[in-house]
Structures
1.
Amino acid sequence: MNLTIDVARRILEASKQRAKELRSPVSIAIVDSGGHLVLFERMMSPYGWATGNISIAKANTAVMFNQSTDAVAQWGAGIPGFASSMSEMTHGNFIMAAGGWPIRISGATVGGIGVSGGNAPGRDDEIARAGLGALEAMAPAVPEQPPLSSMPLQSPQPQSPLPVASSQSQQMQHSRPYMQPTPTYPSMPPLNDPSRPLANRGGDQQQDVPAKRPDAPASTQQLPEQAQKEENLKVENLKIENLYNDQMQPYTQFNDNYSGGQS
């Protein structure tokens, strides 16, 4: 952002108006951010030529350090040889005296103003700050917002209720269209469920323990189902074998008697 001639002229006119009110003819210099002279006016013409160079030096010093020349004079006074060395390096465009201020627009330094020749202590600084006050009048006004009470209230639009699962799945499909919904599976029962029998320690699979039957022998009440079937099969085979032996006993006695008679 650059310092235009119109803005510089408004600052100079505001400083001149304050100088006339104080009846203090001064020299006013305005430079840009590079220290180049933009506007200059000496109110005390034809005398007071020295105030012209001093006002230009004040404007350059304010731009050089981006602060008022009064502040530079306060901390620069404690540095031996600071004023003389700076004045020599800048070819006389450095001075430690009140009356110079940087010109800032929207927080950026675009130039500086220097005033010299005031007829009382502090007059130079006051006239320079009056010129900077013109920038505040040029700033655009912030539009006033209407109060909240005057704004019409909008009734909320009714929304159709959606199930939580369907809304989540729709949101997932919109956010990640390349992914399919994750299927849900029934949860497994806990391992230490008291309603289920304990697993057999000798095998990998669980076996249900059969309930006790009143007609079963006491020795077979605690057997598993497979062992019970084998035991029942052995009992049946034993019964059949006994029945067969009973039926074959007369024939065995007859054969024994017959063979004994022949001998």
2.
Amino acid sequence: MTDPRTIGSIALLATSMLLAGSAVLPARSESTGSITLKQGDTKHAAAKPGAAPHCNPAAFRMVLDVGHVEEVNWGAISARGAHEFDFNLRLAKVIQKDLTSAGFAKVTLQVIKDHRHRALFTRAKKANKIPADLFLSIHHDSVPDSFLEKWEYEGEEHGYSDRFKGHSIFVSINNGNYQGSLQFAQMLGNQMKAHGLKYTSHYTDKIMGDRQRILVDPEAGVYRYDQLIVLKDTKMPAALLEAGSIINRDEELELASPERQGLISASVVDAVKQFCAARAKPAAPAPTPAAAPKSTEPAAPKAAAPGAKARSSLPWPFSHQ
């Protein structure tokens, strides 16, 4: 037979253990069965994940730069004699409208009227002054004069080249935020691809001579064009989109259609949404260009020796800028 005093001691010990356990174990809700943390349970509270950062489109500032100048520097001439500036402005307005509809209220449509060379620096300075979170310059492509053939359209002779078609995206390693520029350019290229649009690879061909460019991302169609002023002098992530080739007779008609403009605009809007959300999250350390594979991301070119003849930084007469 057990001594009553022993039984009382055991009961007291058991009660003490239960009370001690309740101080460290989470309580279970009687109504839902879910776990709720007891006050002072700091270990479990610290492990609870917080709300993920998200894009705030109303606060995101973007510059849509319309390439070239009206009436003075029209840019490229299409296969039917139309001006590149008109293509650029028309597409940029569609993109601005769609971005605004998506909640991006702070989109600046930048149209420069000064045709002098210094105006190229003005484009970058204005974007830096805002300051913008993203810069995208809108252009349409052509080819060097040596590639042109002749044909007659509406009684007039025009130059054309059906040799190449497709868009291309450019970034500069000298930009104030190259990693951000590359990140957005890749997003845009992938969105263009998702919308059924193909980029042109002819900038990798040796026939392009000094206009041959480094293909940074062969999946997204992103090239490096380090000397472009609007890309290298901007402090925020910046890219230049050649929406397609207006010197190609078939693609010129496609680029003039609302359907094609809608696809390009949808690609830009989706890429901007993705970029805005990605930039809202804490940025992980990105590898420098020199650390990337040599085949796709070569290191920046070394400065030329004093007195050495520099390669021209300007493209053919219808400058990208």
3.
Amino acid sequence: MDYPKSIPGVGLVNGGFVDENPIAGSPGSLIPAAWGNSVTQEILNAIKAAGLTPDEARTDQLATAIGALVDFTKLKNTPTTLAGYGITDAVGRLLAVRQIETVGITVYKPNPRAKRIRVRLVGAGGSGGGCAPVTAGYHSIGGGGGGGAYAESLYDVTPEMMAGVPVSLGAGGASRNSMGQAGGGASFGSYMSASGGMGGQILTFPVTATAVGFVQGGAGGQAVTGGNLANARGIGGGYAMYNANWGVLAGGGGASPFDGGGPLIGVNGAGTSGNRGSGGSGSCSTSASASVLSGVGGNAFCEIWEYE
């Protein structure tokens, strides 16, 4: 329903009806029969939908019809929980988010009020390929370390879990001046496990006016089991690249669900570390006297969301 804007000569002002103004000599708006009938019919439809009989002498029937058609009691008492809508198989209120990142074994015990837990687990990242001192006229480049594999599950909390679940987290691959080192795996008791990413490779080559070189990063973690929401292999580390025309970049570390990985590095720059399962970046070097080390892989990581 709207004002009769489409009917010519109605005389709307600013979109609405106006009265005649004899002093100013301006006419009032016209109310077309078709529009007046439409408004009346809109009101009658609502009255009839509520089961009422239209009565010309009454002025409260529209309000009565709205009250009959809309259950204001329910609107005022809208449920605030899923159970209030009859949904019983659902995770309740979030109690806490627990994060475990200590390398080794940590025994996790759920909050006594927790009924379900969401567990996110990632293996450790591999380190990038690093550079030992190189012969004059040569260049060395290293690929990025791979990210760890990722598993995720939603569990009902059991008495066995309440007694404690051992969470085992491996260390990220160590900084190297050679091919990168693989990261360690991770496990959430016997429920889930995720392997670590592999270390980045290295390439040493003579620098010439037309030299081009590239070497791949480490593969992402491949073995992952037990996730009932996700079992994802890790993301591989980036390629290291050299071109005599535009320069050199070491490979970036493979990302994890919790970190983007060690960023790309230029010439004679040490690699940067990964974090929470991501790979460390490689390094690149023209130094004949010193090693240029790669970035460390991020340690394995576990995050647990506890729900009532």
